[in-house]
Design brief:
The protein is α/β, with parallel strands linked by helices. The chain has helices at 3-20, 77-93, 101-108, 123-139, 158-170, 188-191, 198-205, 212-218, 221-234, 243-260, 272-290, 295-299, 302-320, 336-345, 370-373, 420-426, 428-433, 436-439, and strands at residues 59-69, 150-154, 185-186, 329-334, 379-387, 397-403, 406-407, 418-419.
C-alpha cells in the first residue's frame, strides 16, 4: 500500500468510532437483534430485566407458538453487485484521490462479498438462533422439557431452513426430535403467504407505482442532502451516485457490524442525521410493501393468524378433555416479510399519520420503526396458559404475547395478559371473515389501480 494511501486509511480508522457513533440504531431490517435487547451484548443467554412473568403460579403453560425471523444473513446478490459497482468506481479514481482520503481508504477496503453468498445465513445467524432457543427454553422450562414434541417449520429459503436447524441445535439433545436440517418441515403457504397472494404480487410486489412514496423520498430534499454529502466525501460527481448506491454503502456499514461485529470504513460516510434519513427510506418501503400502506399487505397474513388460533383452540379443547397437548411447541421460521404484515394485521405499531415522502420530520417519533420491530432473529410468541384457580371459567385459559422476548401489551386492554376468550373476541372479525382466497383474488377491472388495495 502506498504511504499516502496508508496514511489516509489510518486517518479514517481513527475517526471511525466517532463517525459511526449512534448509527446502529437506524439500520432498519438489517439491525442486529442486540439493538432491541442490549443486555445480550454482555450476556447472550441473559433473559433480561423483568424476566419473570406476571401470571400467578397456579397458571401452567400449555402451548407456545413462535414465529421467528431468520438470523443474521449476508447481503443479497443484488446488493453485492451494487456495492461492487460503487467500489469499482472508487478504485478507478484512486490514483488521483490524494485530496480525497475517504475515497482512497475505501478503495483499499477489501471487497470480500461474493454474489454466491446471496442472502445466506451467516455464522452469526446460527448463533442468533441457537442462543434464542436456549433463552426460550430457560424462560419456559416446563414446555421445553424432555420428550416434549417440537413441531418445527420453515420457509423454503436456505437461510430459514438453516435457522430452524440452528434453533433445534440450541435446544440440545433432550427433546424427542431430530437435529438435522431435513427434519424441518417446509411450509411456504404460511411462512411466505405473500408469494401465494396474487393481489399482493401483482398490485404491490410487481407494481412500481405502489412504491410511489418510496421513489418520491429518494428524489426529495432529505435524500438529496445525503447524496451531496456522500458525493463530496468520495469526490464523485453527483450524476455517478443515486439513492440506491448510497443506501448500499449504508447497508454495508450495517452488514459489517451484524456479520463481523466490526465498524466498517463505510460507516465514516454517514452522520446520525444521515442515518435517520436512510432509516426512513427503509421504513417507507416496509410500510408500503409490508405494513399499513395497503390493506392487502396485512390481510394476506390472515392465513397465518388463523392457523395460530386453530392450534390454540385445539390445545384448549385437549386440555378441557384432560388429553395431553398434541402440539405443545410450534416454532416456525420465516422472514421480516412474514412478521411485519402479521403485526400490522393485529394492529401493532400503527401511527396516526401514514408514512409519506413529505412528512419525514413529523415522523421522527413514529411507532413504525422496522429495526425495533423486525431485526434479525425477531420473534413473536403466543403462550397459552391453563390457570387452576381461575375466578370464572373464562379466566381458566389465558394468553401472553411476547415480541423479541418482551411482553407485548394487548391492544384491547393494554395489559400483558388476556383471557383467551377476550383475545378471540377482539380479533373475531379477522378470525371469521378474513378468507385468504377471497382477499387475494385480483380485482376484475384495472389491475394497476392501487386504489383497489
Amino acid at each position: 500500500m502506498a504511504p499516502r494511501r496508508e496514511a489516509a486509511l489510518m486517518l479514517l480508522l481513527l475517526v471511525l468510532p466517532l463517525a459511526s457513533a449512534g448509527l446502529s440504531g437506524y439500520f432498519g431490517t438489517k439491525s442486529r437483534y442486540e439493538e432491541v435487547n442490549p443486555h445480550l451484548v454482555s450476556d447472550p443467554l441473559s433473559l433480561g430485566p423483568g424476566a419473570g412473568g406476571s401470571l400467578p403460579t397456579s397458571c401452567t403453560p400449555l402451548q407456545l407458538r413462535a414465529v421467528l425471523r431468520h438470523g443474521t444473513r449476508y447481503p443479497t446478490a443484488g446488493q453485492i453487485r451494487r456495492l461492487g459497482e460503487l467500489h469499482a468506481r472508487l478504485l478507478r479514481r484512486a490514483a488521483g484521490a490524494a485530496a480525497c482520503p475517504a475515497a482512497a481508504a475505501l478503495a483499499e477496503w477489501p471487497m470480500w462479498y461474493e454474489e454466491s453468498l446471496d442472502g445466506r445465513l451467516a455464522p452469526q445467524g446460527r448463533r442468533d438462533m441457537e442462543q434464542l432457543a436456549r433463552r426460550m427454553a430457560a424462560r419456559f422450562p416446563a414446555l421445553f422439557a424432555a420428550r416434549r414434541r417440537l413441531a418445527l417449520a420453515s420457509s423454503s429459503k436456505h437461510r430459514c431452513l438453516q435457522s430452524g436447524a440452528a434453533f433445534r441445535r440450541g435446544l440440545g439433545p433432550t427433546l424427542d426430535f431430530g437435529g438435522d436440517e431435513v427434519e424441518v418441515e417446509v411450509n411456504d403457504s404460511l411462512m411466505r403467504f405473500f408469494d401465494h397472494c396474487a393481489k399482493f404480487v401483482v398490485l404491490v410486489e410487481e407494481n412500481d407505482t405502489a412504491m410511489g412514496q418510496v421513489n418520491a423520498f429518494k428524489e426529495g430534499p432529505e435524500m438529496k442532502k445525503v447524496l451531496e454529502k456522500v458525493a463530496s466525501a468520495l469526490c464523485l460527481p453527483m450524476e455517478e451516485l443515486n439513492a440506491d448506491l448510497v443506501q448500499v454503502a449504508f447497508l454495508t456499514c450495517s452488514y459489517e457490524l451484524a456479520i463481523k461485529n466490526v465498524t466498517s470504513p463505510w460507516c465514516s460516510l454517514f452522520s446520525e442525521e444521515d442515518a435517520k434519513v436512510l432509516e426512513y427510506l427503509n421504513d417507507l418501503k416496509q410500510y408500503w410493501k409490508r405494513g399499513y400502506g395497503y390493506d392487502i399487505n396485512s390481510r394476506s397474513s390472515c392465513i397465518l393468524f388463523q392457523d395460530i388460533f386453530q392450534h390454540l383452540d385445539k390445545a384448549v379443547e385437549e386440555s378441557k378433555s384432560s388429553k395431553p397437548i398434541s402440539s405443545p411447541l410450534i416454532v416456525q421460521v420465516g422472514h421480516a416479510e412474514t412478521l411485519q404484515p402479521l403485526l400490522a394485521l393485529m394492529g401493532y405499531f400503527k401511527d396516526k399519520e401514514p408514512l409519506l415522502a413529505t412528512n419525514f420530520a413529523r415522523q421522527e417519533r413514529r411507532k413504525f420503526r422496522s429495526g425495533r420491530i423486525v431485526p434479525y432473529a425477531a420473534n413473536l410468541v403466543f403462550v397459552l396458559y391453563h390457570c387452576d384457580r381461575a375466578n370464572a371459567s373464562q379466566q381458566e385459559y389465558q394468553v401472553q404475547l411476547l415480541l423479541n422476548e418482551r411482553l407485548l401489551p394487548f391492544l384491547h386492554s393494554n395489559e400483558t395478559t388476556s383471557t383467551y376468550a377476550d383475545l378471540k373476541d377482539y380479533y373475531k372479525d379477522i378470525l371469521e371473515n378474513c378468507h385468504f382466497k377471497e382477499e387475494c383474488e385480483l380485482p376484475q377491472l384495472n389491475v394497476t389501480a392501487v386504489d383497489e388495495l
